[in-house]
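Input:
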Amino acid sequence: MANTQTLDRAEVVALAPPRERRRVGRLNLGDVAVFLVLCLGSVAVLLPFFWQVSTSLKSDSQVNLIPPMWIPHPMHPDNYITAFSELPFNYFFRNTILIEMGVLAGTLISSTMVAYAFARLNAPFKNTLFIIVLSTMMLPGVITLVPSYFIFVKLHWVDTLLPLIVPAWFGGGAFNIFLLRQFFQNIPAELGDAAAIDGAGTLRTIFFIYVPLAKPAIAAVAIMTFIGVWHDFMGPLIYLNSEHNFTLALGINEFIQENQTGAMTHWPLVMAASTAIILPPLLVFLFFQRYFVEGVLLGGTKG
Amino acid sequence: MARTEALPLVRRTRARATKRERREALTFYLLVSPFIVGFLVFTFVPMAGSILLSFTSWDFIHKPIWVGLQNYQNLMSDQDFIQGIKVTLSYAVMALPTGLIVSLVLALLMNRDIPGVNVFRAIYYMPSLLAGFSVAALWIFVFDNQHGILNNLLATIGLPRVGWLTDPNWALKSFVLMGLWGIGNTILIYLAGLKGIPQQLYEAASIDGAGWWARLRHVTLPMLSPTIFFNLITGLIGVFQYFDQSYVMTNGGPPIIQGDQIVGSTRFYMLKLYNDAFRSREFGYAASEAVLLFIFILLITLFVIRSSALWVYYEGNVVKGK
Amino acid sequence: MKRFHRLHPLFAGLLVTGIALSAVPGHASSLPRSHGNASVSIRMAYFGGPDTKALLDKITPKYEKAYKGTTVVYEPEADRVKQVTAIAAGTAPDVFMLGDGDVRWYEAKGALANLSPYMKKDKVSTSQWIKGTLSIGTRKGKIYALPKDYSTLAVYYNKDMFRAAGVPFPKKGWTLNQFRADAVKLTKNDIYGASLSGDWVREVDPFVRELGGHLDNSNGTKTVGYMNSPATVKAIQWWVDLFLKYKISPTPAAAKSLGIGDLFASQKAAMNVTGIWPSLGASGYPSTLKFNWGVAPFPTGPHAKHVNTICWAGFGMSPTSKHKNQAWGLVKYMAGPVGDNVWGTAGGLPALKAIAAKHKVSKNPVSGVFLKEAKFSDLPSDINGPAAPQAVSDTLTEGLDLLLNSPNAGTVQQVLTIEAQKGQKAIQQYNAGG
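Output:
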């Protein structure tokens, strides 16, 4: 088994499909077409962002110009300073990071274990249980929120970060369980069996065989979990009362609402805040993206 | 069949099998136990509570009053409820297939080894870095009649302006368009799925002389089918709960006359539910809507799972079966 | 084994921090400790973001000084979902800031404590408040909420545009017909005579009432026979004509798209019918408008009928508060002279006569106009009863959107009949909920 895992880069290149080796010599027409299509799509995707950033650098009166000003002149980068200085970043940021760490750890550990069980082990009522897992996504959150609140009141967890962190440790969410199960199920079972024969325990099999082989999926779970927590508004809104427990999403929302109500909507400030808030998730995405760069190699099993 | 597709059936000799099976079941339940505990404590009680409340009239303040099936009966003659179903179904029919297909195509394109592919992935994922309300704020701007980027583009090429959110014929389609912009997560999952396909399969196919279509047809799609299945099911569950942007951007409007009724052309089911729960504060009534939605999504999901045996292919199981 | 070592430390790190975090209940200590020693904390929910909080901070120290051993814990984001959920779970804050749309319902459901006995005990006289500002918080002679600040509606007008068009400035006692005629004269090219919301029921309401219509009955139990009465249909037709026939103001759909800015501020509209809020704060009209402008009273209807409305926020107290005396004390500080002075100096309209006099509001060319309109304020139709926000506001907004957005879809009579029935149904549903 070990030999399949230790293929080094040279071997990877050697094993790569012929298409790639051909490319070294001359331009591949298909790739050029794909490149152009993706460029075109990127323009469409980026246009709203361009508008967001452009607006964030305008003054209120520049926003109102017809025809609109595509690139603001003069620019007003001070909108960002205003947005930042009005946001109490100190503990909002700390609380958000605390929740992020707690939820990420809980989700990744817990969902891999549950997903492995569903993907690989056989037990009575397994399929029923799996439907139950899925069903937890089907009842609208705004409805279950109210009874959930009662539970956290009983646990005396309201106005603490616990209601936002602890549930992640109990299964890691149906979406993630389901996603990882799909990926684990596609991994040849011999790998796990072989590990078991080597005397590896189930947990070792999960974390040393399955998790590495499903790295792109794990990275996807991590990215989506991070972003979900980063922007979660309803949870913190309901469970946190005191401002010193607040998260960034609450703060930003407060800021946006403040600048949106009344006769004057300060779009530049709103857009500056919305732009600034997505930078950390963008960094997280870029960090995890490296797990998408190379494909997974299973080696000799299909020989 | 759903019953068997998920089960990697391992049968050695009969006697050893039962012992092994028992141990396996034990391991299964040990591993799943955090979920079961979490489910019972954090999910089952709220779910059961919501279902029970759907048989009551509850204003958040007084004790719930048991009304039996009254809420469900009232729903049947509730014009906004029926409109909520219509709007949500038409949205689902438009948004779900387009989202799944466009994201699959983009993922396939971005799975190639072309220059700048990482930049492309980041760009296409960027919309997913925004959350509900920021997306809404941004798109109010994009759709704006005078200042919006879309209408200004149309004007540049000499086309008439469109009332994206104010024209009843366009409002729902505008949400579909906006949804297409935010398919980053679906692409991400497809990409993860594509990365999970062993390179050796492509080599083998290439050696057999398969072109790109044959490789797509006989390697990529079958191997990706569990991922497609995942995106379909989660997309399905999500699309029927569409809420955030419609709440901020149109709040159900623009209204239209339909027979002797006035209804909102984007009055999504969840919007109606939310209004019943937190504007009218008739929680029991809203809970009955939630329960009906739950049953509906559950039935559709079960149907898709059942059908999945026909088209979802699990590499791990097939290897076992040989 | 090299390949997965990269993911491994990440996992280990997350595991450790996660366990550490979940194990430390340190944050639990931030739960309000209200029993035990002599110190009492009073939880107060508010909305309005950092700006409002800055104002609150000018009031609470004085309260805490007066009520030794009592501390105020702010709870921002007094969101609708959050507030009812907390009330349901018995964890409602002791004192909360309320929007005008919520008062009737909270009071009808018993979620607001009756403040009258406390006022009586502390000899807080209702006569010190400006007429009209107590009506929203009062029900059957009992007071459930006291005002924070308020606004009536008035007409901002661009003096330069009026002069250029040769239209005399509007003055006290001008009529609806004059308003319309002026607006028509001022409307040209891309300039609108007035900026009207079109579908904001609080603004439509006084127009309808001056024209003899009603949106519902006085206790908000009936919309059928009111919203679709001949007088109301005529009044709404008058309103709709402003947009579709005389085109003095953009329709809501058009306004929404232009609404990225303020039409009046950007000199695209000669008049603006609204509350005092555009003139508040650092970016308000007085400090930002570069043209000559003035404020005129709301126009008067036929038969000299003059009606205005009120937009309001206030403070109430939870009946489940364990420290009612301290909570009442906080309400008294928030809504009494100390608080009112703060809201007043922030540029809002003080609700107390003495504070308004202190700030010479009646002499102010802007706020004075709004103040003088207060005595014409009726309880707004859309908050007449606990179900009125849905039954009157949501329905009529929808109806007006339809009438203004799709002019050929149906007649005013038709639309108002449907919406009145919808409203009646909403009221029935509320009543059935007991």
